[in-house]
Amino acid sequence: MTAATVPAGKRTFTQRMLDGVEKVGNRVPHPVMIFLILIGLIIVLSAIFAAIGVQVTYESAAPSPVVAEETYPGGTQQPSLDIPPEEFYHPEVKTHTETTAIRSLLTADGIRFIFTSAVTNFTNFGVVGVILVAMIGVGLAERAGLIGALIRKLVAVAPPWSLTFIIVLVGILSSIASDAGYLVLIPLGAVAFMSVGRHPLAGLAAAFGAVGGTFMVNVLITPTDGIITEITNEAVALADPARKISLTANMFFAIASTIFLAFLITFITEKIIEPRLGKYTGAVSHEATDIPDAAPVEGDAAPAAQARGLRFAFWGLLAVLALLLVLSVPPQPWGILRNPVTGSLVEDSPLMDSLIFIIMLVFLVCGLCYGAGAGTLKGSAAAMDAITKTYAGLGGLIFMLLVIAQFIAYFNYTNMATVAAVKMADGLERANIGPLWLLIGFILVVLLLDIIIPGVIPKWAIFAPIFVPLFLRLGVAPQTVLAAYRVADSPMNVVTPLMVYLPFIVLLAQKYKKEAGVGTVISLMIPYMLVIAVAWTVFFVIWYLLGIPLGPGAPVELG
């Protein structure tokens, strides 16, 4: 497979630089080998740092432990936990002082951990379960031909100029469904671009930039918002027990950021990424990838059969939505998917906790209905064969995730990430600069630390007790600090090697460019990371200087 590109003599400095990044990145060892090398490095460094006594003391905000009793329902040998509902759904967040020291992996305890934790490290690695569950529905729908038919329909009804913007906007909004955007929208972005003669890697990059680079904003309240708001309020109580912020404290800023970033990512894709990639002249490579093929099981259906299949899929979608409405809309006790204590559909609700399963169910039902209508899935054996082939194609990815899970577990065991975060935060806290420059410095520190601590909540649990009281003393409202954290948390997601979906995206890129590697994806995403980080920070600074409220009753400075 080859892709025509702009002649070398006409390429800009930025394009040549990114080409260099791609070449260097693709010459590094296979990602599995990279993480094996990193595991060895972590083991050695942990022993050195532990030997010299590296440690930090800091304030941390975390939910209090919930008391639970083991029961054995129905005579089962596996215990179940009875948790008091009120304590489970509304845990009390408390701030406490912690001292964290580097732990060596070369001590007796460390070696025991390496030998005994391998299985649990993998089984507790959440992304594995997400991929295995989601790909049941997504894989079947793709092999049945539903995905391709939907893309062709979208291209037919959407103006050509709007395709990039639609994909980007949906990608930003996908954070309401947690990680589903990585598994669903990024492959769709690549297929959508290829269907109109545009480079599929540009569609992949646009969707990845939208899903990963803007994860902390949305026009809706997401499950993550509730957690980080509670952590913020606990940090506020350290300086002003009478003050707290609401769940909507960043709503205006989040909505405005969503619109701003949608246009920004569209601009990056069409003005930077696509000119560098040039015109796509290749074909889908099924041998180079460990993810499901884009082709239907029985081949492309005729237009009339596709139309019939889409009608069947639409009826299937209506059936699933009707089931969800029956389980969600009625008040308790009939609203089974509502929070059993508060009745909320969003805050700590089974509906929010089951979004990955719901997405799997939607794609599974719609895929089966499409296959029946279009004639691409003939009988239950064909459906089972499609799911089996989907799982068979995930073998390489699952092995890679096994190695990554060990690296992350070892890294967390050593406490190196926590020590690095606290050391950098302490240095910024001691800096004698004004509130605005301190906010900018705060954004830069979080950006850097996101390389080694990609998780939203773990970083905020460390930073909030340090910076929220500090900014309160400087007259800066807690919601402003939280907004700055939103700006800093996401952009680095698209280039950090610790992004758990990076192997999946590399394998997806290989479908369209056989020689693609980590360097290919990183070189594609560097412009998104840089432009989003700089432009979004400027957007935040202008918002702060203009004094626009960040949400209902949430000014940028203390009143």
TrEMBL record:
Alphabetic keyword roster: Membrane, Transmembrane, Transmembrane helix
Keyword Transmembrane helix: yes
Gene Ontology biological-process entries: p-aminobenzoyl-glutamate transmembrane transport
Molecular function GO terms recorded: secondary active p-aminobenzoyl-glutamate transmembrane transporter activity
Segments crossing the lipid bilayer: 32-54, 122-142, 154-174, 180-197, 204-221, 251-269, 312-331, 351-370, 391-413, 433-453, 460-485, 491-509, 521-546
Database matches in InterPro entries: AbgT
UniProt keyword annotation of Transferase present: no
Entry protein name: p-aminobenzoyl-glutamate transporter
